[in-house]
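User: quick one, fold this
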Amino acid sequence: MTTLSVPRPVRAKSKPTPAPNFGPIHVTQPHLPPLAELLPLLLEIWDSKVLTNGGPFHARLERSLCDHLGVNQIALFANATIALLTALQALRVTGEVITTPYSFVATAHSLLWNGIKPVFVDIDPVTLNLDPSRIEAAITPQTTAILAVHCYGNPCDVSRLERIADAYNLRLIYDAAHAFGVRDSRGSILRHGDLSVLSFHATKVFNTFEGGAIVCPDARTKARIDHLKNFGFVDEVTVVAPGINGKMNEFQAALGLVQLREIDGLIEQRRAIDAQYRRGLTGVRGIRCVPRDDDTIANFGYFPVLVEAPYPLARDDLYERLKRHGVHVLRYFHPLISQFPMYRDLPSARPENLPIATRTAQQVICLPIYPHLAPADVDRIVSIVRGT
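Assistant:
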């Protein structure tokens, strides 16, 4: 059979302006490519009978992602949670790990599943990322790592975190679930730390239905991770570690290859929506759009705003107003991880230790943003927020 070549990602051509949605508007909508573009790859899978275990599409997607993201090595996973679990195993992290309470629960759950105690530290009031100035006070003899999150795709203060990790001989892992394609002035934000973990969930900027990946600094680290995600097998009869089944299948990888063809254009559509929101919400007292760093190439995966005084409604009242108008937003992240039952008894989880995170969780709303959200719908959402 003749193998179909999958072109490297290129900037997508401009597309017609999406039509307004007169039904409910959700906070996000998964992007799917035209089915006709995916079908030839599915036929290859049917012909080869190779469904998983590191097949040809899996290998091609790893190479394509390295090229697109500008990283050395990448190991694909079935989902990002298993990737987080495996990253901690790969670095042999134990004891205590300093992390943020302002994230999706999988960040901290991955620590508990590895028998590691999370130690929560407050966030920076501008970036909403882990505040480097508060980390050193939380370090104990049991601390072995820092697990930071690039929240909403806004990069952490990677230089300060690296200095702290080096000074105390700590591992530095980034939950980069929101940071696909994000770059700073020196290149991919994913190159920082010991490992970075990506999510390719359906709700993310780049999706493979479900999926995830670990960005690795070198081939040796990737080899260890590849063993861990395949039950610890090195060959047919040799198992070198208590691994897990974390492998991405060929269907996910095939979708990823097709998605990469369009990703630049999809991010440009998100950029336009982000700019439209910022223009429309300018001057609305008490609505603060979370700023973006001018030195960062963003992916515009989320549009968070903080509802503060003197806005006439509390955050939850604005949430209900939007819902009454058919706009389904997300209070992301509320509640804090530290408020869930399995964490709230930790000394570091006390609200008085986390004043910025606690306040932010009470104020945040993520407004809808996805490539096919029509400009007229953005105007409608802005009008509801403005109360006009």
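User: anything notable?
Assistant: Residues 250-281 form the longest helix (32 residues).
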